[in-house]
Amino acid sequence: MVKIQFFSLLRILLKEELIELPAVDGETVAQLLERLQQQRSTPFLQKLLTEEGSMHAGTIILVNRHNIHHLEGLQTAVNDTDVVALFPPGAGG
After folding, report:
1. Is there a contact between 74 and 60 (Cβ–Cβ < 8 Å)?
2. What's the CATH code, domain 2-87?
3. pLDDT value of residue 54
C-alpha cells in the first residue's frame, strides 16, 4: 500500500489526513495523483498542478521525505510501502 498524506488546504478540502491506495507496478507520482483524483469527488489536483500538468510554484511533494524536485519530479516512481506527502502552495501576506 502507498500512504498519501494531505497537508494544509488539501487536508481541509478533502477532510482527510491520510489515505492508503494499493501500489501499482511502475506508477509515477503523476499517475498516482491522477488515480487519486479519479477516486475523489472533491477536485483537488488543480491545487497542486497546472492545466499543463506541471507543478504550481510552491507545491511540495515528498516521497519518503525526499522532495521530488531532487528526484525525477512528477516522473518519480512510487512503490509499495512508500509515503507520499502533498503540500499545496502556501499563501500569506
Report:
1. no
2. 3.10.20.30
3. 95
Task: Give the closest residue to 40 by CA, choosing from 75, 10, 71.
Answer: 10
DSSP-derived 3-state class of residue 1: coil
What pLDDT does 90 receive?
81
Mean pLDDT across the chain, nearest whole number? 94
SS (HEC) of 30-68: HHHHHHHHHCCCCCCHHHCECCCCCECCCCEEEECCEEH
Instruction: Classify burial at 5, counting beta carbons within 10 Å of its beta carbon; exposed 0-12, middle 13-18, buried 19 or more.
Output: middle
- Are 5 and 84 contacting, i.e. CB atoms less than 8 angstroms apart? yes
pLDDT above 90: residue 35: yes
Distance in angstroms (rounded) separating the CA atoms of residues 24 and 15: 25
pTM value is 0.93
Question: Does 91 have pLDDT greater than 80?
Answer: no
* Residue-range domain boundaries for the chain: 2-87
